[in-house]
Amino acid sequence: MNPSEATTKTILINLDLLFDFYSVLFSAYRTYFAKHSITINNLKHLIEGKSLHDGLNSLIKEVSHGFDTPQVREEMKPYIALSLSCLKPTIGAYTLLKDLTKNGSTVKTFTQFEDHVLKYVKDSHKNWFDYEIIQVKDIAGPKAPNSFIGSNSVFIHSSLECLINAGQMEGVCTVFVPYSKKTLESINNDEGLKQKLVNHGVKIYEVLEDIDWNALGVVNTLKWPETSYFLQLDKKPKNDEFQVWKNIHLLKEPIELTSDIVHGFGRGGKKLGIPTANLDMTTEIEEKLADLVSGVYFGWAEFVPSPTMEKGDEIQFNAKFPMVMSIGFNPYFNNKDKSAEAHIMKKCEHDVDGSVLKVSVLGFIRNEADFTKFSHLIEAIHNDVQLVKDILNEQSV
User: Fold this and answer.
1) Are both 78 and 94 inside the same structural domain?
2) Helix axes 191-199, 181-188, angle to 10 degrees
3) Do residues 246 and 184 share a domain?
4) How confident is the model over 21-32, as pLDDT tens digits?
5) Can you give the residue range of the structural domain that contains 195?
6) Is the pTM here over 0.85, yes or no?
7) End-to-end alpha carbon distance in the chain
């Protein structure tokens, strides 16, 4: 179909794909349960496609350690509130919505989340997110689309059952985009299911930016920036999401940490293009970080002299540099243990392993996320680093 043949359509998009609620909430839940020495690393699927209330109920029931559910909900409130207040759009979401609107499409979103959850989206992103939000109680059920989908629509969802039913409605194009790469992998490994989706006209894409809008009959003039697979931190982020990557949380008091720098996974500089100094997760540091939601933080860092350092080592001591720090489990790489890695915005020619680092954690940027695409991880980190540069003006104090 040529763009000239495309028609004006109503685009109905699952809000959870635009903001990745489930990664954010799961990060908060994992932090809470880790304080109780309980690991829930492989249980994210229990909350996907559900409201906050129902998802948390499923998780608590599975963990089944004699928890008092009302008490758990109350104790989790600060973790959830912090996480949702710093909720960021998924990479590509802001770009896509802006383009669809510009080209005359009517964009509506739908979700099963409660009013108090949606308030965080409306408050934090009120300067740009003014799209209608339809609340649907049984969002994954086969009858869900009947109440809000009309003809001449494109229906983008993560529920296969719901999409198959919607595909039988006249004038509705159905598109499946998964909550996570694990979900997509399970579908790709099930030939019978894949064929069933094809038979019902459901188109499958890994992420929103992969959607072939021309095939759906939608006017689209998107020109996505060239995909990045390695950070180029000397340049500004290319993704438009950086324009709305501004909502952060300042800690009431800085958290001060002093640690030997230890050898990490070797991914930061070699695989990502963002060299990091890995802190030694001593009991003292673990206790100081226990209440911090897993995610990305920022502050100041400085190298301090160590008795083991040899004279002539080319490290600038006792000078503070801006830093961005990952604290958590790095779900894209499926780490089993909690780690703390600081990217210091000062080029170091010398290998810093074995030296001592002092950091002052000032604020929270976002939760860690289970990115579907590696390039999305790269772009999100680039946004984080640029945001910290802007906040701290690239100057030491």
Assistant:
1) no
2) 90
3) no
4) 999 999 999 999
5) 3-20+90-216
6) yes
7) 58
